Amino acid sequence: MEKKAEIEYLDFEENKEYEVLIDKVLDECFLVEQMQDSKIYIDITLTNPENIRKLNNEYRNIDKETDVLSFPMFEKEEINNMKKNGNGVKEVL
Q1: What mean pLDDT is predicted for residues 1-15?
Q2: Got the DSSP string for 14-82?
Q3: Number of C-alpha atoms within 13 angstroms, CB side, residue 11?
């Protein structure tokens, strides 16, 4: 399976074990969602609570850190429609 993510570090020490684990989780997610042939690509940034707090405040007007902050390009329903209509996410992206 081709690589589905770019993992970046922002004020956070690189950790190859995290990268291996993230790749395994993504491989399984794409398999379960039957999207292993899609061209969807995920950008993951590992950072510290201070940076998460800044991003939360900037984009969500919430002045606190959270465990995860995500910015999806497609909603789940949109992806399901692409798969259902036979267009395949592969062709859309």
Answers
A1: 89
A2: --HHHHHHHHHHHHHHHHHTT-TTS---EEEEEE-HHHHHHHHHHHH---S--S-----SS-HHHHHHH
A3: 6
Instruction: Taking the CA atoms of 51, 56, 58 and 62 in sequence, report the sign of the dihedral they define.
Output: negative
- Tell me how far apart the alpha carbons of residues 33 and 31 are, in angstroms, rounded to a whole number: 5
Q: What is the DSSP letter of 11?
A: S
d(CA 1, CA 86): 21
Reported pTM = 0.74
Is residue 47 classed exposed, middle or buried when 0-12, 13-18 and 19+ CB atoms within 10 A define those classes? middle
